[in-house]
Amino acid sequence: MAIIDATVTNKEIPHIIQEQIVSALSHYPELTDTHIRFKFTRSLGGSIMAARPVVASLFGDRKNRQYEILISAVFKLSDSIEPIHQVEDDVLIGWIGHELGHIMDYEQRSTMGIARFGLLYGLSKRYIRKAERVADTFAVQRGMAPYLLATKNFILTHSGLSEKYKNKIASLYLSPDDIVALVEELKHSDKEEKRKVIAEEEVIGDEIK
Ligand SMILES: [Zn+2]
């Protein structure tokens, strides 16, 4: 078992999936000091993982804000149960990477913004789709596309997962094709961004001359 990296601070990590969590966290240096508790739970209302702020921590100082990533200890399959830690590493890393994307999103929001998020997420399928896209976008920007693809392909092709669950995933989450398109889009916007920066620097350079 790997020793937890010294840069992983303010985290509570279950030993059994420690390596996968640390690997996903390594893509998010901006979350190094963020308080995140990874916690196994028995039931998650049909989900496998969920990221949420600890409500009580939202009312104090911003730097004391805490988050939880709840992880269902097992998958309920149609005729059996599969412990989550037996899932392939890349699949699990992609899954955690997606949840960390949600935390990146929360981190940019005020307490009011988070309250609004919670409300709209509960009310609107369109809003859920938007929020899920934002989480995946953070993960793709941080080089996690191959892991996300592993996760999505795992879910969509898993013969033992219920059709209901697979349909929910297909209707609310980005598909593997969407991820590939997103990678291309971000590559392009990166170039665009660089062009803009270079153009701006040239203007400033001209002004100095
Ligand atoms: Zn999500």
Q: How are the strands of the largest sheet arranged?
A: 1-2-4-3
The overall strand count is 6
What is the count of structural domains? 1
Order of helices and strands: EHEEEEEHHHHHH
Main β-sheet: number of strands, strand sense, barrel status? 4 strands, mixed
Alpha carbon gap, first and last residue: 58 Å
SSE-based structural type: alpha/beta
Bound chemical compounds: zinc ion
Q: Uncertain regions: pLDDT < 50 for 5+ in a row?
A: none
Instruction: Give the overall silhouette.
Output: globular
Q: Name the average pLDDT.
A: 89
**What's the helical proportion of residues?**
40-55%
Rg calc: 19 Å
Q: Helix count, per DSSP?
A: 7
